[in-house]
Amino acid sequence: MQLKTAILFATPCDDEEDNMATLCCHSDQGQMFLLTRYPDEDTVDLTLDDEPSTLDGLKVTLSANRLLLEVAAGDTDALKGDETLEIVFTSQGSDLAEIEETLRIILDGTGTYVSEL
């Protein structure tokens, strides 16, 4: 599955949401992507088009022009049957340093983060 977005938003610690780390975007086709984790929880939540899922074994790779999520075989329902979700950045508007910080927080102890920056 692939989404294209102009901007990927990241919040490593949202005070208004009990310090939740959040990564989100809207695709150029209007699809919503949201990846979140509360600091006191050991699970990562992914919402795609208003369908929330809790993930086990998530791997995320960040490069200058894309974000690649790979889910475990048992979590493909979160991606509508796909094992991967590729989010392609169509502009340079995303703050990659903040995205990277947020991903490290979200995946710490719950998944794998790979930086290609």
From TrEMBL:
Q: What is this protein called?
A: Uncharacterized protein
Identify the species of origin. Pseudomonas reidholzensis
